[in-house]
Amino acid sequence: MRMLLGFIAMIMATLPVYAQEGWQQKVNEELPLMGHRNWIVVVDSAYPLQSTPGVETIDTRQDQLVVLDFVLHAINNSQHVRPVVHTDTELQYVPEKEAPGIGEYRQQLKNRLGGLPVDSILHQKLIDQLNELSKTFHVLILKTTMTIPYTSVFLQLDCKYWSADSEEKLRRTMKGEGPGSH
């Protein structure tokens, strides 16, 4: 009986690992390794498979907003990174009559991203930027079941504990232009 209880305890201890989807486990494994200049991109189902070695694409087979919620939660709970959000400029212009549901999607996305720095950049420019960045830095692309165009959400990771303002002050100090200079 003691062996049976030990076996059951061992199985129960491993259940949380198996309860996660593969893509969720991948995010949880890679996020601690990622830092500023890495990207996580949550994309629609027609997003192209990029062939640059630094780009890793995973098919989540999940709703885009579910995947985005998971990733944002994981980043928010990290101690080292925060997201800078980029969306496709085209998203603002896609008409409801040609992409049913886009109005509701835009509202849901706005609700999820409230309080985060968000800008919009042309879709092709973002893809080109990822191609260039992935020569040096890792990019994780999470493909979803989304079938509305221009709904990709690009999360550029930045340092959570060191701001751009802090970096600028440091650089000025190093040049002898700011506080602490001799």
Short overview:
By secondary structure, the chain is an alpha/beta fold. The protein has helices spanning 2-19, 22-30, 64-76, 102-113, 123-133, 164-174, and strands spanning 39-43, 55-59, 81-88, 118-121, 139-143, 153-159.
Describe the model.
41% of the residues lie in helices and 19% in strands. The N and C termini lie far apart (74 Å). By secondary structure, it is α/β, with parallel strands linked by helices. It has one domain (36-174): RbsD-like fold (3-Layer(aba) Sandwich), CATH 3.40.1650.10. The chain has 6 helices and 6 strands; from the N terminus they run ααββαβαβαββα.
Kindly state the number of beta strands.
6
The strand order across the widest sheet is: 2-5-1-6-3-4
Q: What value does the Rg take, in angstroms?
A: 20 Å
Strand and helix order: HHEEHEHEHEEH
Quaternary state of this entry equals: single chain
Helical fraction equals: 40-55%
The low-confidence runs, each spanning 5 or more residues with pLDDT under 50, are 9-18
Describe the main β-sheet briefly: 6 strands, mixed
Structural class: alpha/beta
Terminal residue distance = 74 Å
Mean pLDDT: 89
- The number of domains: 1
The count of helical stretches stands at 6
Specify the overall morphology: globular
Classified in CATH, the superfamily is RbsD-like domain
**Architecture per CATH nomenclature, i.e. the level-2 architecture:** 3-Layer(aba) Sandwich
Strand content: 15-25%
**CATH class, anyone?**
Alpha Beta
What's the CATH topology label? RbsD-like fold
